[in-house]
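Section 5.1 Outputs to date
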Amino acid sequence: MENVLRPLTVVGGSVVLTLLVGWAVDRLLRRVDDRHPETPLWGMLRRCRLPLQVVLLGGLLRASYGEIHQPLVRERSTGIGHVLSLVLIGASAWLVTRIVSAAVESTYARYASSTRDPARVRRVRTQVTLIMRIVTAVVAVVAIAAMLLTFPGMEKVGTSMLASAGIIGIVAGVAAQSTLGNLFAGFQIAFGDMVRIGDTVVVDGEWGVVEEVTLTFLAVRTWDERRITMPVSYFTSKPFENWSRGGAQMTGTVFFHLDHSAPVALMREKLLEILEDCSAWDRRDWGLAVTDTTPSTIQVRAVVTAKDADDVWTARCTVREQMVAWLCEKHPYALPRIATSAASLPPSGQWPAHSSAPVPGPVPEQDDHSRRTGRG
């Protein structure tokens, strides 16, 4: 009977104690969160309940499994202890990652709620994302190293690895030169405030919004829902346009190529009328002027402003569409025209002496013999 009750007591007691502690901690965090709603940390820490329970259960079983006096357990005591140690290390890494994530996200949430500058919020969001990736990678590496050290004989392997660390480091550095360059470029982007999540950028002629930033690559979502994945080293080595840098407000231009008789003054009045009905216009500035002229057309430029890149695109398209429709309906003479006429010969059919072209003239009549033989 004792052989049955002892395993049930050890395992069942560990499970019950783990559930009670997890429930008590969750209850405490809930009460603290209700009393301090301005701090989201306590509510986010409730997500650590499951890894905390796994750590507690693994630790209790690791400490008490030797009390199970069963032949099967005694024969496999070393293996069971090793497995429980691995579970404890993995669960501890999971718990640390969840705690750090809750702390970092709560800090970002408080900063975002108290800051009205969207550019600063995007910058902090980019930095927080990269910090979490770094912490997760470091914790995972430490956990894997700790697991490997629990295996017998790994000490000798570790000594030999340290002895050849210099050569391996040189070889790895040369082989992973591109990867390391992207890694350091990721740090530079995160803390150098070059580009942030949510920024509107133009790279390689493609317009889009930065959707994701990691330590090695950056994803840009284009206007047609495509994703362009680029190494972060691109943004530290090549020029690119960041339309969100220094503020999201933008000025857009619309060009018209028209006839010289185009009613510029009436077009200026029509532009203001179009903008008054356009919700994308932020009413900061507008204008219309003739910026260039050619022998056949004039170039008219309309200027509109908007609060961000999306609205300036909408405003430009609205102005272009409605202005062209208005010109076609009310002032068709203002549209560009190409004048063509039949070519005329010089007087008396004489071409300039320097011309290399053959001089046209009457074709001599062929006699009957020429017509028959085909020879002139």
